[in-house]
Q: What sequence folds into this?
């Protein structure tokens, strides 16, 4: 099957992301890349656990003083929902329904932006209210590095999806761009999974001690 | 697009290499860049040995000595050994599995340019206020206290080149999983391909911890973070853990491909199939797995406690088992073979006792209580040079001679090659054997000088003389390369006459599309099988058809250049220079802009048409 070929919903292959050799390679390569990313985040998690609440003097805020679960709950819901909408988007991609795929991806992006806004507010809040900063303590460095790496991944994913949507808006689906959309969605799921761990390890475990 | 090579000017050749995505040309780039860094690391080593040749020497200052030993280690591991192995992986592995290119030719080029700019950045430190001076391990409390920008060069340079290596690893994994020729099952892959596969998996999982810890070091030094600053609640042991979680698999990333090269050489020049092929594969995978389980044996004296030390001691000793399997398999491959002592075979035979000596001292250090005596002494220096030089560098020299015809189409002189071997082999043992005893007598590693009359004088002098022998060996190899290139006597597809694997079935160097028709692989040592049946070519698995090829691209160079520029901004940001932040942002804009350009601009590649391939067949009678 050629990347440039034109399709109808009837002739569109079942797994368009893996229908060409390029697609197959990208699919596998990206999974392996996510494996490496997992190790990267595992390292940051380990560092965070080792440095949690490690502050130079008692007047610094600790995890249990800082975190507010209602905000984090909203963030979690936004991101989890965005993962679901990206699944819908891929569902329509596999059915060769370009418009609906774009629509659901747009919703994914909007939810992601909502998450990002909350995270900016959260960081700003810690900076101004509690003087909990990147440089104030080892705890601060580890916290902002872990959540910041995740946030940077969110930004990267959002830019990626927006560019894909804009670039392909006028020309519909092909076997050349189907793997690209699929990988962006895979990346988005990965970001979501990392957040589930951040929610558990940083916020929930932060509240219980 | 014509497939016929044309005579071209110098500028267009340079442009061709700057934009190439062909794995064979990228291999040559890796070989040249890695070779230059190898020479720089070698010069640093010679200066270290010159300083230590006699007691109370002041050939270099103590501060410069620290920079030299740091840069020697860092350069040799990250910028010489690994890229040189990547050169052979790039040049040979796709041919061995019967592929037309790697899975991601663009990413392959990107990996090279990231490595190159990272290495360049690191070495610019010599001219911009001093090189890093905290050892190649750069332990955090020491590296945080280091003044100037040396450690910043280390952190940013290694970060950039590390990204490149990671991409190379992913690329090779996908290539081997997805792009094998019909009939090339996993258990028919040549051992060099297998070791490339396992080493790539190690790269994939070992580099991210290094990435993470280098980010922390960068943040601590340049952006005011406190990961390793104990006064602010930090913990310096975190660096040690991450460094060695990366660092130990790193030595297997180096030695496994070396094992692969030797396995090919042993079976080729014993003219026998590799003894115990499946146990070799098993041992390779097991070494790769155990490589992640032993990092804390570098930290026995840190004080992790007897339980942790005992567990890591036992795990470390366990690695001797699969390594032993390999040693015996090589011996039994030679046994009863019809042996030809070519230059690569000489290195292979010399490798066995040299590497075993390094392995034995390794098991000695695995005994945690005894390691308290060896730790930070010249005994350690002797040990890791026995495994890295006696293993990896021997393999690189052997591989250079062995694969030179496949990469360049000419044969290195066997006569000069033997001269190189003799000097390098004798020099190597002269240099490092005596260091075991220097260490046991109490000479600490990384020491700038020593006092006379403590029993260290003779040993150090012998060691320095040995280093000079090795230098003579390396220089003779360079002369060999020049003479061979000037003579330019072209060779056929199988210049060693006993090639066993697919790469020897196609012309030297291979055509840019590698295989006109993908070969049908009918067993282990596919080309040997065909030769034994009296054929000279491989059995094709497909009719001649159009071949899809990727387009060249300048984007990998630009992406890497952007990070290189950004690194300067990040580094001088500390000095409150007004231009630093714009440079940092500008560099990142270049990098991400180039990535976006790559993402948005369609690149479908091109096709070599069937007719062109047929024509070429008539012109030159090239065999597929």
A:
């Amino acid at each position: 099957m050629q990347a440039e070929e034109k399709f109808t919903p009837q002739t569109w292959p079942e797994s368009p992301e893996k229908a060409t050799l390029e697609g197959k390679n990208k699919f596998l390569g990206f999974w392996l890349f996510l494996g490496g990313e997992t190790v990267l985040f595992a390292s940051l998690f380990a560092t965070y656990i080792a440095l949690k609440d490690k502050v130079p003097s008692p007047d610094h805020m600790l995890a249990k003083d800082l975190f507010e679960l209602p905000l984090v709950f909203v963030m979690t819901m936004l991101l989890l929902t965005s993962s679901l909408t990206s699944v819908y988007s891929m569902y329509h991609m596999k059915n060769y329904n370009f418009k609906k795929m774009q629509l659901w991806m747009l919703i994914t992006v909007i939810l992601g932006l909502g998450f990002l806004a909350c995270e900016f507010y959260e960081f700003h809040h810690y900076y101004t209210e509690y003087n909990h900063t990147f440089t104030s303590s080892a705890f601060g460095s580890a916290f902002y590095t872990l959540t910041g790496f995740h946030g940077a991944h969110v930004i990267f994913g959002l830019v990626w999806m927006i560019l894909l949507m804009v670039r392909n808006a006028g020309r519909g689906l092909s076997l050349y761009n189907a793997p690209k959309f699929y990988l962006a969605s895979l990346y988005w799921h990965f970001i979501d999974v990392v957040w589930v761990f951040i929610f558990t390890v940083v916020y929930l475990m932060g509240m219980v001690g | 697009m014509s497939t016929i090579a044309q005579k071209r000017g110098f500028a267009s050749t340079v442009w061709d290499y700057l934009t190439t995505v062909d794995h064979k040309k990228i291999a040559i780039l890796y070989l040249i860049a890695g070779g230059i860094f190898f020479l720089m690391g070698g010069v640093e080593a010679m200066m270290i040995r010159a300083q230590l040749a006699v007691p109370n020497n002041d050939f270099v200052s103590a501060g410069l000595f620290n920079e030299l030993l740091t840069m020697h280690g860092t350069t040799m591991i990250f910028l010489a050994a690994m890229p040189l192995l990547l050169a052979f992986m790039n040049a040979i592995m796709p041919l061995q599995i019967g592929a037309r290119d790697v899975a991601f030719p663009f990413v392959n080029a990107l990996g090279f340019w990231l490595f190159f700019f990272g290495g360049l950045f690191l070495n610019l430190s010599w001219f911009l206020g001093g090189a890093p001076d905290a050892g190649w391990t750069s332990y955090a409390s020491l590296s945080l206290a280091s003044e100037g920008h040396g450690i910043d060069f280390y952190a940013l340079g290694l970060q950039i080149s590390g990204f490149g290596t990671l991409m190379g690893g992913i690329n090779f994994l996908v290539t081997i999983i997805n792009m094998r020729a019909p009939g090339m099952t996993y258990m028919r892959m040549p051992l060099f391909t297998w070791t490339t596969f396992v080493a790539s998996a190690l790269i994939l999982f070992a580099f991210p911890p290094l990435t993470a810890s280098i980010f922390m070091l960068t943040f601590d030094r340049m952006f005011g973070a406190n990961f390793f600053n104990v006064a602010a609640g930090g913990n310096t042991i975190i660096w040690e853990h991450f460094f060695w979680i990366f660092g130990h698999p790193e030595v297997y990333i180096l030695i496994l491909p070396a094992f692969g090269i030797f396995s090919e050489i042993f079976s080729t020049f014993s003219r026998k199939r590799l003894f115990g092929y499946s146990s070799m594969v098993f041992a390779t995978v097991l070494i790769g797995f155990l490589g992640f389980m032993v990092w804390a044996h570098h930290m026995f004296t840190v004080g992790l406690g007897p339980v942790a030390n005992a567990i890591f001691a036992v795990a470390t000793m366990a690695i001797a088992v699969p390594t032993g399997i390999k040693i015996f398999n090589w011996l039994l491959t030679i046994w009863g073979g019809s042996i030809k002592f070519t230059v690569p075979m000489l290195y292979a035979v010399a490798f066995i006792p040299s590497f075993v000596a390094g392995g034995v001292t390794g098991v000695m250090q695995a005994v945690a209580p005894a390691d308290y005596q060896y730790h930070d002494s010249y005994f350690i220096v002797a040990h890791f040079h026995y495994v890295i030089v006696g293993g990896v560098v021997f393999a690189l020299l052997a591989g250079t001679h062995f694969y030179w015809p496949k990469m360049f189409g000419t044969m290195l002189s066997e006569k000069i090659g033997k001269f190189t071997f003799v000097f390098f082999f004798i020099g190597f043992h002269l240099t490092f054997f005596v260091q075991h005893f220097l260490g046991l007598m109490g000479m600490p590693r990384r020491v700038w000088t020593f006092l006379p009359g403590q029993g260290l004088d003779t040993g150090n002098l012998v060691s320095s003389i040995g280093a000079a022998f090795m230098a003579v060996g390396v220089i003779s190899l360079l002369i060999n390369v020049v003479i061979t290139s000037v003579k330019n006597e072209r060779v056929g597809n199988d210049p060693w006459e006993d090639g066993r694997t697919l790469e020897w079935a196609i012309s030297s160097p291979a055509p840019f599309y590698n295989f006109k028709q993908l070969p049908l692989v009918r067993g282990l040592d596919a080309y040997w099988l065909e030769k034994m049946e009296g054929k000279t070519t491989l059995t094709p698995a497909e009719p001649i058809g159009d071949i899809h090829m990727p387009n060249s691209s300048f984007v990998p160079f630009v992406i890497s250049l952007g990070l290189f520029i950004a690194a300067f901004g990040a580094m001088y940001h500390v000095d409150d220079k007004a231009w630093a932040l714009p440079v940092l942002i500008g560099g990142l804009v270049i990098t991400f802009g180039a990535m976006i350009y790559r993402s948005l601009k369609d690149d479908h590649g091109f096709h070599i048409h069937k007719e062109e391939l047929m024509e070429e067949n008539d012109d030159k009678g090239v065999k597929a």
Notes: Chain A has one domain: 32-45+67-208. The helical segments of chain A are 21-51, 63-66, 69-94, 98-130, 138-168, 178-208. Chain A has a mean pLDDT of 93.
